[in-house]
Amino acid sequence: MDAFNYHSFNHLVGDVSAMLFSSSKHDIMKYQVSVSLLTQAIEYVRQHRALTHAALSGEAYDRKQLVNVQSHLHHCAAEILKSRVIGKKVDRISLQNQMTHLVDSTGELTLTKSLVVHGKVIRQLIFQIDEQMLTAMTQANKLDLAGEYNDQWQSIMSAVDALTQYRLAIVAMHVEPRDEVLVNRAKMLYSKLMKVSYLYKGYHPNLEACLMSLEKHTKAENLKLSVARQQELYALCSEISAAVIEVYRQTTEHTCLKVFNACVD
């Protein structure tokens, strides 16, 4: 086979291969729906964490709202289990068990344990979203989008982990106040959020506002340990969490749209 025909043949094979492995837009929509379900589950876990934290801290909270959020968690867990698009069945069962455990253990966990357990569930949900995204890209033959998306995903996960560590340091303030630990955790979180902001490829006002608020807590001279300050810092963590998850939601939506548009009709 001469050079011209050889390259023509390879080009033809590539075109046929792309057609065989490209998903229809209907197929990709199933992954978009599963990502939305998992993202909604994260929001309910976040709401549950905030309400149980208030209850465990002796602060005022809306009991009816807590019951409502628990109901939503049960519903989301059931929907995740039913979805054959989301991971393997064993993974769905694990997620359902973890989410229902949050409800069943309400009031039984310590502040620290509650933060760890809620954070673990959120990370597992983000891992499942990532799996859905990569599967959709693979089926649509658009793995060229994976590099940029993976960098964004990694920055989100690093920020979530740093935020959990900062929360734990805040909760520990009333047991063993350690200014340097709190400041160092704030600095680490700030650097991770800056990375999220840089890789987001856009402007997010809530994330920028959180960065401005957090920056003053990265300086030891601005730290005054008290119950009021502890509540202020924890409230800031909730705002940061909301902003980071919203950035990730918008990132997945933007990437899903690119994948969707690349599909055959």
Provide the fold topology.
Blueprint: H1 3-21, H2 25-56, H3 63-82, H4 89-104, H5 111-139, H6 146-171, H7 179-199, H8 205-215, H9 227-262
Rg for CA atoms: 22 Å
Element order, helices and strands?
HHHHHHHHH
Structural class: mainly alpha
The total tally of domains equals 1
Task: Report the β-strand fraction as a percent range.
Answer: under 5%
Q: What is the mean pLDDT?
A: 86
Number of strands: 0
Largest sheet: none
End-to-end span in angstroms?
A: 35 Å
Rough outline: globular
How does this model look, in words?
It is a single chain. This protein is mainly alpha-helical and 265 residues long. It has one domain. The protein is 79% helix and 0% strand. The protein is built from nine helices and no strands. The protein has helices spanning 3-21, 25-56, 63-82, 89-104, 111-139, 146-171, 179-199, 205-215, 227-262. Helix 2 (25-56) runs antiparallel to helix 5 (111-139) and helix 5 packs antiparallel against helix 6.
Key features of this structure:
265 residues; mainly alpha; 9 helices; 79% helix; 0% strand; globular; disordered N terminus
Short recap of the structure:
By secondary structure, the chain is an all-alpha fold.
